[in-house]
């Protein structure tokens, strides 16, 4: 279904009616129409950015043409063409366990004009996306968030995490593996293809990951208009002993007062195997005239901590990154492979009524889940948010039970922990 053209789906009637009752218009925006520039300016304003130039509008259009753009308009406003609410969405693929993906309704660009905040516009827009996604057969919706306080009320919850990493290179002597391949600088204008190719190898094995897109790669590569650091972007690739490109590092060096201790800012580092990872991190840490390496969206427990002699030279700050919302419990649970058998009755509470119900969940020795509706008494109860967090195995049922988010006995929690244990720690390595 990732191939489904979401642009052809109708607008949600409930949201349209709710907004109309408040004197507001809910309508789709065509990336090639007159509405597009004001839509983009509204998104930029919502995310505290400046006004987009013509070149930036053209660049954004390349991506947003394939997405479902929806705006909320106030015809009584001073500039009625400028939406007071924006949202975009598209069908993509979430890796549920290594080598297995499930269709995901991805949501982004959620903004409401500061003049119109806290009147229920976001509620209407998010509700509209969830109902549309559910009606189209999606089992999951997902997003990355500006604030952790916003989306829980709609059943989203963190399912994959990422770490912001800072390495003090003066303390970090390399003790990690010696990679057998080679490193080479490559030109910026080759990076869209290179980032795409390496990331595709990474993300299919990485629970919590989604594919990138050309606009994302252009941005990281310093090829998007308006990028003030573009001329400082450099890129290095790793090729293994067979000449296969398995890693790419894109970075800038930001000057500090001490000319021997600048900051190397990693824009992105994708490595399809351990050798590529070690080679690229070693390159960054041992770079001359660099005192600090900073890298965002790294693995929750970054392996580089184990590759230097003073592990406290590496600071990793964990943050929730990928929030999921279950829309169809049987389909979401069937998406992944499990680590151990399980047989229990699960009750899921969903205040929005999209994924409410009671199911018998049976996981066989083959790690496959069968999920059937049942009237039997539930041994385990949880909110739809808790289920979203457990789904990829990024958090243990025992931990959520301690927080009161899962209601189950110790034995049921232990069984859930064994079954849901992730083969690879969930991680999302891009913003979307
Ligand atoms: C996937 C993404 O795009 S993440 C980006 C989110 N957007 C931003 O951070 C941009 C800046 N912020 C905004 O544009 C707006 O404040 C939004 C989109 C976050 C909220 O829009 P609003 O129209 O004001 O929200 P709305 O009025 O529908 O609020 C619905 C509920 O969420 C609550 N809420 C809204 N924003 C926030 C917030 N930032 N933190 C906590 N609660 C919030 C409201 O209080 C309300 O709660 P209630 O139902 O208990 O009364």
From TrEMBL:
Q: Which InterPro entries match?
A: Acetyltransf_17, Acetyltransferase_Eis, Acyl_CoA_acyltransferase, Eis_dom, GNAT_dom, NAcTrfase_Eis, SCP2_sterol-bd_dom_sf
Protein's recorded name: GNAT family N-acetyltransferase
Q: What is its EC number?
A: 2.3.1.-
Residues forming the N-acetyltransferase domain are 24-177
Specify which residues bind acetyl-CoA according to the UniProt entry for this protein.
Answer: 110-112, 118-123, 146-147
Gene Ontology MF term list = acyltransferase activity
Active site, UniProt feature: 151, 432
| Organism the protein comes from | Microbacterium algihabitans
Q: Which domain of life is it from?
A: Bacteria
Task: Look up the coiled coil feature and give its residue ranges.
Answer: none
Q: Which family does it belong to?
A: Belongs to the acetyltransferase Eis family.
Q: What is the lineage of its organism?
A: Bacteria, Bacillati, Actinomycetota, Actinomycetes, Micrococcales
Mind telling me which HAMAP family this protein's record contains? Eis (MF_01812)
């Amino acid at each position: 279904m990732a191939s489904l053209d979401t642009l052809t789906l109708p607008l949600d009637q409930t949201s349209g009616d709710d907004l109309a009752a408040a004197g507001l218009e809910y309508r789709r925006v065509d990336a090639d129409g007159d509405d597009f520039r004001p839509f983009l300016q509204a998104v930029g304003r919502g995310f505290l950015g400046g006004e987009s130039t013509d070149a930036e509008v053209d660049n954004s259009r390349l991506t947003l043409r394939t997405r479902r753009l929806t705006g909320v308009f106030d015809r009584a406003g001073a500039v009625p063409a400028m939406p007071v609410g924006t949202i975009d969405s598209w069908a993509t693929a979430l890796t549920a366990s290594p080598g297995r993906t499930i269709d995901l309704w991805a949501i982004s660009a959620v903004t409401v004009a500061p003049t119109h905040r806290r009147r229920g516009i976001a509620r209407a827009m998010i509700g509209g996306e969830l109902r549309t996604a559910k009606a189209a057969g999606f089992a999951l919706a997902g997003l990355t968030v500006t604030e952790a306080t916003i989306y829980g009320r709609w059943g989203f919850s963190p399912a994959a995490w990422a770490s912001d990493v800072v390495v003090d290179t003066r303390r970090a002597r390399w003790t990690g593996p010696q990679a057998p391949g080679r490193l080479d600088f490559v030109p910026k204008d080759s990076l869209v293809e290179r980032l795409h190719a390496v990331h595709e190898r990474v993300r299919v094995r990485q629970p919590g990951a989604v594919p990138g897109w050309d606009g994302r790669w252009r941005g990281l590569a310093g090829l998007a208009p308006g990028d003030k650091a573009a001329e400082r972007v450099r890129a290095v690739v790793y090729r293994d002993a067979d000449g296969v490109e398995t890693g790419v590092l894109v970075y800038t060096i930001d000057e500090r007062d001490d000319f021997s201790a600048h900051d190397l800012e990693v824009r992105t580092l994708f490595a399809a195997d351990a050798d590529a990872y070690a080679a690229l991190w070693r390159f960054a840490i041992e770079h001359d005239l660099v005192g600090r390496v900073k890298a965002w969206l790294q693995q929750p427990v970054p392996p580089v901590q184990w590759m230097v002699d003073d592990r406290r030279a590496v600071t990793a700050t964990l943050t929730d990154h990928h929030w999921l919302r279950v829309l169809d419990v049987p389909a979401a649970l069937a998406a992944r492979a499990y680590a151990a058998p399980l047989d229990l009755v699960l009750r899921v509470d969903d205040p929005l009524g999209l994924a409410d119900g009671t199911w018998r969940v049976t996981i066989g020795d083959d790690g496959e889940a069968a999920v059937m509706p049942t009237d039997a008494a539930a041994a385990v109860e949880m909110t739809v948010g808790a289920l979203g967090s457990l789904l990829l195995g990024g958090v243990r049922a025992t931990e959520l039970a301690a927080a009161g988010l899962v209601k189950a006995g110790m034995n049921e929690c232990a069984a859930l922990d064994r079954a849901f244990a992730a083969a690879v720690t969930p991680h999302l390595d891009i913003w979307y």
